[in-house]
Amino acid sequence: MNNFKLKTESKLVKRKLSDMSTMYLDQKAVKEVLTEDPLIYEFSTIKVPEENGHLLHCISKIYSGKIGSEYFMTKGHFHEVENTAEIYFTLKGNGKLVMQANNGDSKVINMKKGSISYIPPYWAHRTVNTGNEPLIFFCVYRGDAGHNYGIIEKNGMKKLIHEKNNKVVITDNPKY
User: Fold this and answer.
1) pTM value?
2) What CA–CA distance (Å, rounded) separates 62 from 95?
3) Where are the chain's structural domains?
4) Which CATH superfamily is domain 10-172 in?
């Protein structure tokens, strides 16, 4: 018997620079901008059971901006249940989906309105807003996936997305 009751209340989570200050390479720029503590991104979701068989889903919004030369981005994570895939459907804006496997393989995918991005199991992922408006996308993944931010908080991602000479560039992370 299914005891699930649909709840229509949504939960909004906001991440400011102070929530992710170690994620950016240029710590001098972080200290300068931290006095303003800008809102980097937010996501909203409807509560569903965090168990196998259910689908968690959210709408994420990454604001436009930079810390030093790096664009605003999400913290990035692996899933606690590592064999979890995820789908993103871009609703508005332009950005990059940065993915990285445990063995160090990495891939960067363009995100633009109407694009669908697939994150395979066992891959960490982070989204980056490279445009001048908010990057907004819909996400869906298994209910019991969980999030492991620790590895990315400690080591960062292998690839950095930043601006150089008014162009979006992808470079290796010197701290990786």
Assistant:
1) 0.92
2) 9
3) 10-172
4) Jelly Rolls (2.60.120.10)
Q: Do residues 115 and 80 lie in contact, with contact meaning Cβ atoms separated by under 8 Å?
A: no
Collect all residues with Cβ–Cβ distance below 8 Å to 32 and sequence separation of at least 6.
none
Check: CB of residue 72 under 8 Å from CB of residue 64. yes
Give the tens place of pLDDT for each residue, 113-165: 999 999 999 999 999 999 999 999 999 999 999 999 988 888 889 999 999 99
Task: Give the residue carrying structure tokens 């400011």.
Answer: 16
In contact, 106 and 172? CB cutoff 8 Å: no
Phi-psi sector, 98: left (phi>0), alpha (psi -120 to 50), beta: beta
- Tell me the one-letter amino acid at 111: M
pLDDT at 5 over 80: no
User: Can you tell me which residue has the tokens 């937010």?
Assistant: 42
Average pLDDT for the chain: 93
Confidence band of 1 (pLDDT split at 50, 70, 90) = very low
Complete edge-to-edge strand list for the sheet that includes strand 159-164: 66-67, 70-71, 159-164, 167-172
Three-class SS of residue 133?
coil
